[in-house]
Amino acid sequence: MTSAYLYFLSIIFARTAVVFFGCVIGLRLLGKRQIGQVNIYDLAMIMALANAVQNAMTSGTGNLTTGFVCAGTLFLLGRLMTAVIVRWPKVEQNLCGTSTVVVSEGKVIESHLRRSGVTDDQLELSLRAHGFSDLSQVRMAVLEIDGNLSVVPYETAAKN
């Protein structure tokens, strides 16, 4: 390897490290809610962020400043969107969707499963992962906005 090539690689390394730490700080500023609950909006933002900073890391047609301006803009928009969602919850319902009851009183609600794009096999797999071998044990199962399944068994519901 020539010294010019090693220099080029060290520049790429440094630029990537700078962009990485800039993104970590930006994502941290978005707050735990943004990090902990990935929905369609968050996924789109992460994809746009990745595109915005890739040239800055690799010395492509963009530069470090351009990458940070793009990333900063995305972080600012993410923070603004969070503020809008907190102030007007209806925006979150329209943008991110709502939770869907897929099992009620031990019976699968097939229309809700179909609308959510979940198969019976996927539901059964999730129920088994929660420790339920039979639908008769499940009072209610809710498909949450983030794709996780929340399950309320009969015995827990009866105690409350």
Would you write up a description of this structure?
By secondary structure, the protein is of the alpha+beta class. The chain folds into two domains: 3-95, no CATH class; 98-159, bsu07140 like domains (CRO Repressor, 2-Layer Sandwich), CATH 3.30.240. Helices cover 67% and strands 11% of the residues. It has helices spanning 3-30, 32-36, 40-58, 64-87, 89-96, 110-116, 120-129, 154-159; strands at residues 100-104, 107-108, 138-143, 149-153. A four-stranded antiparallel sheet has the order 2-1-3-4. Strand 1 and strand 2 (107-108) form a beta hairpin. The longest helix is centred in the N-terminal third of the chain and has 28 residues, at 3-30. It is elongated and about 70 Å long. The termini are far apart. Mean pLDDT is 77; it is low at 32-36.
Short précis:
The protein is α+β, with helices and mostly antiparallel strands and 160 residues long.
- How many domain modules? 2
Q: How far is it from the N-terminal to the C-terminal residue, by CA?
A: 70 Å
**Quaternary arrangement of the chains shown?**
single chain
Strand order across the largest sheet = 2-1-3-4
Count, helices:
8
Number of strands: 4
Radius of gyration: 22 Å
Give the SSE order as H and E letters.
HHHHHEEHHEEH
Overall geometry comes to elongated
Element layout with pairings:
Layout: H1 3-30, H2 32-36, H3 40-58, H4 64-87, H5 89-96, E1 100-104, E2 107-108, H6 110-116, H7 120-129, E3 138-143, E4 149-153, H8 154-159
Antiparallel strand pairs: 1-2, 1-3, 3-4
Helix pairs in contact: 1-3, 1-4, 3-4, 4-5
